[in-house]
Write a structure and sequence with these properties.
InterPro entries: TPR-like_helical_dom_sf. Keywords: Signal. Pfam families: TPR_19. It comes from Mesobaculum littorinae. The chain has 14 helices and no strands. By secondary structure, it is an all-alpha fold. The chain has a domain of 79 residues: Tetratricopeptide repeat domain (Serine Threonine Protein Phosphatase 5, Tetratricopeptide repeat, Alpha Horseshoe), CATH 1.25.40. 34% of the residues are buried.
């Protein structure tokens, strides 16, 4: 019997077409997966930067529960918990991440950071001790400096702070911490210098301005530093300077600064008013 060539050709063509269609479907599916990964990556970045911190926590909790094997989502959850000021929960997540075989030295440093935020300095120090000295990052040395500070190991703290400053283009925060360390040691002039240096990198850092005023007050220098400040900030810094003067025993100077703070503030400055009334013996009970 002669084969039905037209039929075979048709069947062959149909099979080839089906194969092409399947191949095409697979390509489309792979392409869609790639797009989804890119979209998810972008969404994760948004959640870790500009999204509301608690919304980010909810997102990463849900997504991590749906993908229990994804370590990157666990990291995202831990970071979002830190942003949401929930360090105790972040400690638990970073602890799980750090215990996995895929954990990195950066994970262990982040774990130590969460432990410090949660007030567990001893475990934070033990965690950092597991990170090899060859892992040299700004975050690692910033934490090492803080731990050395807490142990009153001043020489080590200064060395770590100096190294951390050299490893970042935005050292305002670590310079402020270093300045506060010097302030706590009674090295007021050096503390003032470090706060001033911090403000050269970020002149909006009010904490550094306030600390600088404390350093000047401790030296009985009761004029405000020449740094950018709003009218509200000026009043608040005068209030800080007044309290510093009073603490030094310069009560009359403190009273004068409180009056200036009250007059300078664009709204009612309740804290300064209460302090002045207390000093003048006119507290209304």
């Amino acid at each position: 019997m002669r084969p039905n060539i037209p039929l075979m050709l048709c069947l062959g063509g149909a099979m080839a077409l089906a194969a092409c269609q399947k191949s095409g479907d697979a390509e489309v599916e792979r392409a869609m997966k790639s797009v989804n990964v890119i979209d998810e990556s972008n969404l994760n970045d948004i959640m870790l930067t500009v999204a509301d911190p608690n919304e980010a926590v909810a997102y990463f909790k849900r997504t991590a529960a749906e993908n229990p094997g994804r370590l990157d989502l666990q990291r995202g959850l831990a970071k979002s918990l830190i942003r949401a000021k929930r360090p105790t929960e972040a400690v638990s997540v970073w602890g799980r991440v750090s215990a996995t075989p895929e954990a990195t030295d950066a994970d262990r440093v982040a774990y130590a950071d969460a432990l410090i935020r949660a007030g567990d300095w001893q475990r934070a120090e033990a965690t950092l001790d597991t990170v090899p000295p060859t892992f040299e990052t700004y975050e690692r040395y910033r934490l090492e400096a803080m731990i050395a500070d807490s142990n009153k190991e001043w020489t080590k703290a200064d060395s770590f702070y100096e190294t951390a400053v050299g490893l970042t283009t935005k050292p305002s925060g670590v310079l402020n911490n270093w300045g506060f360390s010097k302030l706590s040691r009674g090295d007021y002039a050096e503390a003032e210098r470090l706060f001033g240096e911090a403000l050269t990198y970020d002149d909006d850092l009010f904490t550094a301005k306030n600390n600088m005023v404390l350093a000047r007050g401790a030296q009985r220098r009761y004029d405000l530093p020449v740094v950018p400040m709003s009218q509200v900030e000026q009043a608040e810094l005068m209030h800080t300077m007044a309290l510093s003067a009073i603490k030094q025993g310069d009560v009359e100077i403190g009273k004068g600064l409180l009056r200036e703070a009250i007059d300078t503030h664009p709204q009612h400055f309740e804290a300064a008013v209460r302090a002045l009334r207390a000093l003048e013996g006119n507290v209304v009970n």
